[in-house]
Each structure stands twice: as structure tokens, then as C-alpha cells.
Amino acid sequence: MPQIQVDEISKSFYISKRKKGLKGALKGLFNRESMEIKALDKLSFSVEKGEILGYLGPNGAGKSTTLKILSGILSPDSGNCMVQGRIPWKDRINHVKHIGVVFGQRTQLWWDLPVIESFDLLQSIYSIPKDRYQENRDSLTDLLDLEPFLFTPVRQLSLGQRMRCEIAASMLHDPSILFLDEPTIGLDALSKVTLRNIIKKLNREYQVTVILTTHDMDDIEALCSRILVIGKGAILFNGSIEALRKQLDSKRRILIETEENIEQVYHPKATLLSSKGNRFELTFSPREISAAKLVGDLMKTYSLKDIIMENPPIEEIIAQLYLGQKVKP
Amino acid sequence: MRAYTAMMGAHMRCQLQYRAAAWAGMVTQLFFGMVKLMIFGAFYQSTKVEQPFSYEQMVNYIWLGQVLLMILPFRVDQELADLIRMGNLAYELTRPVKIFWFWYVRALSLRIVPVLLRALPMILLVGLVFPLLKLNQWALAPPVSWMAAIVFLSSLVLAFLLSAALQVLMSVTILWSMSSQGMDLLMPSIVWIFSGIIIPLPFYPPWMQKLFHWMPFRGLIDIPLRIYMGHIPVNAALGSLAVQLTWILVLLGVSSVLLKRGLKRVVIQGG
Which residue among A75, A106, A124 sits closest to B91, beta carbon to beta carbon? Predict the structure, then answer.
């Protein structure tokens, strides 16, 4: 049995609408129209222990809603979901003892207290035994390199430092599942790389299952063994990144630089996208011609200084999905 | 249990940051205490009719009221209101605790710390320094008896519990209104009048006293103060304590039911 099993969960929200202007405002006093928003529409998937699942979707697709249901904060309108044999929203207090949650846009640390005091408070809140707590705290401090600012009030930390503390805070009570909602949002390049390494290490060393939502495709490529793409509350894709690349008839790109300036580069199986001096950008479909053959042909015809092959950016593939091209797994 | 006491400790420590506010507040409270003494002094001198309190009792009521002013739940817990409005409630719900008691200990610390910060210096001033300066007519007198002192302290503890219960109820309403503005406008006028802090409740006309009788607000300062100065005799005080206790239980019950409903309907704000 998978660690997390989600069966056809649906959740709708109602938001109140108001017509424009004074008339609308007055009308709104007496009867309010509300609009139903389907956040999740019979969503089903499962996650095995030890996976790092990338959970993707455009803004408003229902990612956060799913995470909130899985962590017991919200209850769905219909459908069922089991996490390690528990129904999260029915058994919230017991459930949350076994999970860690990080919402990238919020903070769970006490703003005015030093980091270490937030940790101590969490120890009390989760009733973590003292020696277990000290062991976890010290090893997380090492792993996440928190030592230099352990005694600094949270409000004085940089975002990157704070996010490392947030992750440590969510790991103190030995959770077996970690939900990360946009953990890399707003971080600089270096902090992102650091954070990715940390997530990998946590997954390896603590065998913690990670479900992570993000809009950063580098996060996905660096971390996730599997991705789940949703849009308008339903699943668009479920599988590995390679599978996703193959599924779409994706064109690949090749950039070449010739020794001398020439007018044009031509190959019957490739299309010229742009040219700039002696640099040319061509696109081709791997189904019609293999990359090796194309490069060979080009080298025979022209004298080349440089060749760069590009995979289509994963971002473009995902964007295609968002646009509504449903891919069969 | 440890989770709740630890939270309360943390909130109390956070409250201690507001020491400067406490000093400033103390000066204001002393000033208004003096103003009230003057006003009621003039009032007592210009009447021959017998009043519910003697002037000496009135002085005690005024000073203790000023000392305990911050026990009154004037305002919504702004931090908690922001937490609800901005959706940080999500994090609260990921903790293995009952949100209701989490909020209750928070409310308790919010009511207790400001009073404690101001109480000691103020009592020293009006209870010890004033008599030394021969300002006996303005000084706070000790409780009428040892028994009265003990019952007063029990009643004071209940008053804190009651005030925190009101505070939680105020916080719970934010789950519906999403804004603290309404409560922040409404509560001061209710509390100023119905707690007895402006005019002691026994001075109101009988029909209003009947109204007060059915409200929780007299349990905040009116009951403990009148026990202190012997206006409610010790043998009658048990009934008053029971009134306070009943209101605490009723308010806790109502707000926990409302909280449960409110949490169900709350859409965790902001994604």
C-alpha cells in the first residue's frame, strides 16, 4: 500500500461577487451572489515512501489546496485520502505529529524570538523527548549550517537563512513526510542550490518522503523522481521528466557557429529559426532525423566552430501542458 | 499540557517587550485616577443623599480600577487577527494542539502581563507613598479583612480567566468578519460602561443594574473590587464568584463551538 493514497477528492470554494458601482454595492447588502470555484475535481494519485514528488501547476490550479488537505488543515467536499493509514482531516492532531510542513510564503518561526527559542517551543508543542530533540536539533544545525545565526531573532535573518530554519523547524519532530509549498520562492541562485542539496540530503538520510510544489523547473530537474502536473483541479500529467519530454512531440534546438560569415545555413530536415552574423539557430524533430546525423551533415557542408545542442526547456513543455494539451501517460 | 504552558510562557516573554508602553500607560492611568478622585470628591461634597459607597470606598474602587485597567478586553488581539486575515492560520493547524486552548492561553498572557507590569509600581505609589506623604484621603487602603483579601484574589483570578474568555470570543469573530475594525470600535464603548470602570455599577439606576446583572462584564472588575473594599461581604462573595465562573464556562463553550464552525468555513487566505 502506498504511503499516500488520494482517491477522487474534490473541493470547491465559494467566493462572493459584487457588481460594480454604488448600485452593485447596495445590492450586495441584501443579496450576495457567490461563485463556485472548483479547486480540485476528482483528483487521484498515490505516493510511495521515499519519493520526491514534484507537484506542478499554474497559479490557482489547486496545489496548495491539495497540500492543505493532505496535512489535515482542510477537509475535501468528497473523495477519500489515506496517509499512512490516517485520514488527515478526521484525525488532525494525531496526523500532524507525523508530518512536516513548510509554506514558502509564510513563517512558522516566532518573529521576535531567536531561532533557537522557536525550536525549543516546537519541542514543547510536539512533546519531543529531550535527548531526541537535542540530537535532531544538532544534526539539523550541522546539515543546514544554522550555527552562525541560531541566536539571531528571526526578523533579522535573510530569506535564504530563514528558509533553512523553516525546514529545520519542520524536521525537528522526525516527520516521515515533508510537504514543501514553494520552498525556493524568492531565493537567490546560490540559496536555491543550497536548499536543493538540503532537501536531497534529508530525503536520503532521514528517508523522508517529500512532496514539493514549485514554479522553478530547475528545482524539479534537480530533485524530483516524479512529477505530477495539475491544472484546473485535474491531473494533466503523472510520470518522470524524461517520459514527459518523450510524450510531447518536442522539437530540439541546435545552435551552430561557423568559421566564416555565410549567408544561410540549410538542411532539408531542419528549420532555421534565427541568424546573427555567423551564429545560426536551427530546430529539428528527433523523429525525422537523429541529432547525430544532423550534426554530421552540417559538419560536412559547413566548417563549424561551435555546436550547442539544447533540450527544449522543461518550462516550455509545462507551459504547453498548462495551455490545455493533455498528455496521456 | 506542556505545549500550552510553553506557549503561554513564550507569549508572556513577547509581551515583556512593551515595557515602555507600560510606563507611559502607568502615568496616564495615575493621571486619570487623580482626575476621577477630584470629580467624585466634588460629587460627594455637593450631595447630602446617601450614596452606594462611602468616599473612602470610592477611592479604593478608583485606584484598583486604574491598577487593573489593562485586564479589560478593549481591543482584538491584533497579531491573531493578522494571522487569520493573512492565512497564517494554516501553520497553527499543522500543530498537534487544540487551537482553542492555544488561543486561550494566548489571550490570558495578553491580559495578565500588562496588568502585572503596571500593578506593582502603582500599588506602591498609591498604597505606600501616598500615606507617607500624608495624602491619606487619596490613598489606597488595604482590603477590609484577611478573608476579604483571599476572596478578592480568587475573584481576581476568575476575572483574568473571564477576560481571556471574552478575548477569545472576540478573536473568533474575525473568522467571519476578516477584520478587527468593527470589534475595535464596539468593544471599548461596551467595556467602558458595563465593566464599571467609568462609574461604579452600583451608582446606575436600578433598571440598568438589572441589565448589568445579565451581562458578563461586571465580573471583570466590579465584583473583585467590591469584594476588596467590603461592599460585597465575604459571606455573600461566594455567589459572586459563582457568577464569574458561570460566565467563564458559558463564554468558553460558545467560543469553542463558534471556533469549530469558523475553522470549517474558513478558506485559508492567500493561497
Answer: A106
